[in-house]
Amino acid sequence: MSSSLGLSPEIIRYLAGANPPEHPALARCREETARLPEARMQISPEQGAFMAAIAHMLSAKRAFEVGVFTGYSALATALALKAAHPIGAHLLACDISAEWSTLARGYWLEAGVDDIIDLVLAPAAETLDQRVAAGEEGSYDLGFIDADKTGYDAYYERGLKLLRPGGVMLFDNMLWSGRVVDPADTSADTTAIRALAQKAKGDDRVRSVLTAVGDGVLICVKR
Ligand SMILES: C[S@@+](CC[C@H](N)C(=O)[O-])C[C@H]1O[C@@H](n2cnc3c(N)ncnc32)[C@H](O)[C@@H]1O
Question: Which pick of 96, 149, 182, 213 has the fewest CB atoms within 10 Å?
Answer without folding.
Answer: 182
